[in-house]
Amino acid sequence: MASIFTQIINRDIPGYIVAEESNYIAFLDIHPLAMGHTLVVPKKEVDCLFDLDDTTFAGLMIFAKKVALGIQKVVPCLRVGMAVVGLEVPHAHIHLIPLNDPYDIDFKRPKLQQHPSAFSKMTHQLQAAIAEASLCLARTAKPE
Questions:
Q1: Which among 91, 93, 95, 124 is annotated as catalytic?
Q2: Would the pTM count as exceeding 0.85?
């Protein structure tokens, strides 16, 4: 059976998708540690992050960078933390979590309860910020 992430990728179930490329997708965690907590996922369903082929792994990290830069533009935070747990869903993924304190990334903390309208608003804000961050990164990556 397809993972819950594959079901979001295939649009079989809804998700608050903030960014998408041909091989990767990012969507809000519906049980976030902080508002803006985003999951970055390869579209290829592979259980363990370190079982991804090198090209997919490297591409996922570059995609995660774009998403993190967008999060930083929208969510007031000192930085965006990254965590890989991989036990809760059998599909490789990265958590990007806005941080103001080291304990903000403690998965034992109670999850935020947000109204769907808050998720929708955050989705739209992040989509715009990530698109802008992607353009900036593309411009700086081009040789002169």
A1: 93
A2: yes
